[in-house]
């Protein structure tokens, strides 16, 4: 049985600081957050709005004080520094309109959370709102996205095709990043992984599985049917599910749905948990959509991995993050998967 502190924080006396903490051999704590939707309130170059962004910009101006509250982000950061995870995964939509100024702002926020080796980012559809200059946008986060060295594309990364899937190995955990983000028509927020990336994913899953690593796949769009509307779906979700079913995956993390999602997928590894987290900056009155982050504690035993999912949710009354109330926890927050080692 895995005993986890009820508030998902490290026990008193555990003085290992997150960011200098070597990954424990048998226990790994991972924080998952998503969709902070950081917007740029300063002047915007008119040329940057002569496209799909114009509609998004007008909508944001109209509803800027509802939905996302960026003042929640520094509070979340403070809470994370108490939680001290071994690693942080952010599943996209760091920006709202994919503006170069938003990318720079998000870069500063990422640096406040940790170094590139401590934080892994995959892009979301809002980050790829329109086709944009790589050097003014995604290049800002390259070191938070790219694989451990030596990596594909080397120093000459010019786009997603040179990067994804990414692979970062921390202790006995393999963090595999997928890109489902691409520009789409106004009113659409669809995503796709694409055949070449799926082919490389299958190879990565097989290699890391053969090494006995706990494989975590991070993607912005949910890979399951019915989680989001048709106009926001992952168009090749079926093909992605086939790859993970065939090759095995121990945990799948996603964003985009802006609510708590807990499901499982039957894969070679058993019943693989699929978990989505609400926006990290959401001030929604709907409890299941309010800002939070998930804390996964992975514990290796003789022949299995135990996975526990805890939640830290924003309390608008206390202006801080608190453990999710017991009534919202379910038996499905605990999983046991067959170990490959
Ligand atoms: Fe999204």
- Measured between the Cα atoms of the first and last residue, the distance is 19 Å
At CATH level 3, the topology is Purple Acid Phosphatase, chain A, domain 2
Q: What shape does the CA trace take?
A: globular
Helical coverage, percent range: 10-25%
Structural class: alpha/beta
Number of domains: 1
Mean pLDDT: 85
Name the CATH superfamily classification: Metallo-dependent phosphatases
**How many extended strands?**
13
> Oligomeric state of the chains?
single chain
Stretches where pLDDT falls below 50 for ≥5 residues?
A: 1-8, 11-24
Compute the number of helices: 6
The biggest sheet, with number of strands, parallel, antiparallel or mixed sense and barrel status, is:
7 strands, mixed
Strand content: 15-25%
- Whole-angstrom Rg: 19 Å
CATH class equals Alpha Beta
Topology as H/E string? EHHEHEHEEHEHEEEEEEE
Q: Could you say which small molecules are bound to this protein?
A: fe (ii) ion
- The CATH architecture designation is 4-Layer Sandwich
Report on this model:
It is a single chain. By secondary structure, the protein is of the alpha/beta class. It has a single domain (25-338), classed as Purple Acid Phosphatase, chain A, domain 2 (4-Layer Sandwich), CATH 3.60.21. Helix content is 20%, strand content 23%. It is built from six helices and 13 strands. Strands 1, 2, 3, 10, 11, 12 and 13 form a seven-stranded mixed sheet that branches. The protein has a six-stranded mixed sheet with strand order 4-5-6-7-9-8, with helices on one face. A hairpin with a 4-residue loop joins β11 and β12. α5 runs parallel beside α6. The protein is globular. The model is unreliable at 1-8 and 11-24 (pLDDT under 50). The structure holds fe (ii) ion. The site of fe (ii) ion has 7 residues, from loops.
């Amino acid at each position: 049985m895995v005993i986890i502190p009820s508030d998902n924080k490290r026990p008193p006396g555990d003085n290992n600081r997150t960011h200098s903490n070597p990954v424990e051999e048998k226990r790994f704590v991972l924080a998952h957050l998503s969709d902070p939707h950081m917007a740029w309130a300063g002047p915007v170059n008119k040329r940057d709005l002569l496209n799909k962004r114009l509609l998004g910009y007008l909508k944001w101006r109209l509803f800027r004080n509802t939905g996302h509250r960026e003042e929640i982000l520094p509070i979340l950061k403070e809470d994370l520094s108490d939680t001290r995870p071994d690693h942080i995964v952010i599943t996209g939509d760091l920006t709202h309109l994919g503006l170069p100024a938003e990318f720079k702002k998000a870069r500063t926020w990422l640096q406040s959370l940790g170094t590139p080796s401590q934080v892994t980012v995959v892009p979301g559809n809002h980050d790829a709102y329109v086709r944009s200059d790589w050097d003014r946008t995604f290049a800002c986060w390259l070191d938070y996205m790219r694989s451990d060295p030596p990596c594909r594309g080397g120093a000459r990364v010019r786009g997603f095709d040179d990067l994804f899937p990414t692979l970062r190995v921390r202790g006995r955990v393999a963090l595999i990043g997928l890109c489902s983000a691409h520009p789409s028509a106004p009113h659409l927020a669809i995503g796709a992984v694409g055949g070449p990336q799926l082919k490389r994913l299958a190879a990565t899953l097989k290699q890391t599985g053969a090494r006995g690593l706990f494989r975590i796949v991070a993607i912005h769009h949910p890979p399951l049917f019915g989680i989001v509307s048709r106009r926001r779906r992952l168009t090749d979700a079926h093909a992605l599910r086939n790859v993970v079913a065939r090759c095995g995956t121990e945990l799948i993390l996603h964003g985009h749905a802006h609510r708590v999602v807990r499901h499982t997928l039957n894969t070679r590894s058993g019943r693989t948990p699929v978990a989505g987290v609400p926006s990290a900056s959401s001030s929604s009155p709907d409890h299941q959509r309010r800002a939070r982050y998930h804390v996964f504690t992975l514990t290796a035993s003789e022949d299995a991995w135990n996975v526990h999912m805890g939640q830290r949710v924003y309390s608008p009354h206390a202006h801080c993050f608190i453990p999710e109330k017991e009534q919202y926890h379910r038996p499905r927050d605990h999983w046991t998967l067959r170990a490959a080692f």
